[in-house]
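Box S1 | Example of a co-folding query
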Amino acid sequence: MRIDIITILPELMQSPFSASILKRAQEKGVVEIHFHNLRDYSTNKQKSIDDYQFGGGAGMVMMIEPIDLCITKLKAARNYDEVIYMTPDGETLNQGMANTLSLHENIIILCGHYKGVDQRVRDLFITKEISIGDFVLSGGELAANVLCDAVIRLIPGVLNDETSALTDSFQDDLLAPPVYTRPSDYNGNKVPDVLLSGNFPKIEQWREEQAYQRTKERRPDLLD
Ligand code: ADE
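Box S1 (continued) | Returned holo structure for adenine
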């Protein structure tokens, strides 16, 4: 998978890609990340990429031209499955979306700032708008980092058995059951007996019951 990220702050985004699973995914050649600094596509002397909004009002708007130049250049080189815009008024990210996106070959992610982008960018270039939740960040960069992490770990070959995504919360619309490790007794706080029993069908049944119970208590909406 190839991910092209268009941003005015590439340096803000880079560190999550240089550690742990995202780093390994790139080393394995499973994913390629390319940053594009939007200012490099500005056609004016000041390298500005935003301007006042028509009709007045506080907040700058990101201009269409640099975004057009960047996206058009990328699209001339290859086909893209999605051109994603990170925005609080997009569709809320969930595990199903991450699963679908992880199967794509090439995607572009555009990070917004200030009051967002000129509506014509959204009308002409964007195929999917994604929010990571009902709150407003200073820009789309950290949201794009969250999206990339959720997607990349699902690409076949990224996780091994130990870190398998199949038992994650949400993967089967249930929250994950509780987990324990050594010691089996910590100052009288004991691990449930069933987990020490060696009876794997029984352990599996216990985990399913716990997952269901936890989901019912914390996220009953997932069971609807
Ligand atoms: N940009 C600012 N806030 C955001 C959010 N909640 N999700 C995605 N992009 C954003």
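The pocket of adenine is lined by residues 86-88, 112, 131-133, 135-137, 140, 143 (CB under 6 Å). The domain at 2-152 is CATH 3.40.1280.10 (Alpha/beta knot).
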